[in-house]
Design a protein that fits this description.
Largest sheet: 5 strands, antiparallel
Number of strands: 8
Number of helices: 4
Distance between the termini: 118 Å
Structural class: alpha+beta
Mean pLDDT: 82
Number of domains: 2
Low-confidence stretches: none
Radius of gyration: 34 Å
Order of helices and strands: HHHEEEEEEEEH
Strand order of the largest sheet: 1-2-3-4-5
Helix content: 40-55%
Length: about 160
């Protein structure tokens, strides 16, 4: 009986070793699983931090807007605030900055429509001594403010 059991054990042991996972196979599969998890986790992090990305984009949009309007104000001969709109006279052109729906747009000679800022809830322009103060409140409630001044004295140019 012992001989029969030993022969059966050897027979099944040989078959099991050919079909079972070894420790090396398990470690290899686990390392591939860990690599996949490490590659996928940043994707989930980006999807979960979408709000931070939007805020960062709005901040960059504000910086670009400030640089563009700064150049235009530096070269403008005259500035007025009429009905909540900023009207600049640059050479022979009239440039208007105004809120339109939820954007801040720029129009030249009352034509065209260049969107400068998006998701805007409030805009106010205030004339300063030879400059402009711009306050913008976005749809999330964050307020942006910039004071810009002209190289040309608007009081003498008028």
């Amino acid at each position: 009986m012992k001989k029969i059991l030993l022969s059966l054990i050897r027979k099944y042991a040989l078959q099991m070793n050919n079909q079972a996972f070894t420790l090396v196979d398990t470690l290899f599969a686990f390392s591939i699983f860990i690599m996949i998890i490490f590659m996928i986790s940043p994707i989930f992090q980006v999807m979960l931090n979408n709000k931070v990305t939007k805020t960062r984009l709005q901040d960059m949009e504000w910086i670009v807007f400030c640089n563009q309007i700064k150049q235009e104000i530096h070269m403008s001969k005259k500035a007025e605030v009429i009905s909540g709109k900023l009207v600049l006279t640059v050479d022979t052109q009239t440039v208007i900055y105004e809120r339109y729906e939820n954007t801040l747009r720029r129009r030249v000679n009352f034509a065209g429509n260049e969107t400068l800022l998006q998701h805007v809830s409030e805009v106010s322009f205030t004339l300063l001594n030879n400059g402009i103060s711009i306050n913008v409140k976005d749809s999330s409630g964050k307020t942006y403010t910039v004071d810009l001044f002209s190289f040309i004295d608007w009081n003498l140019a008028a």
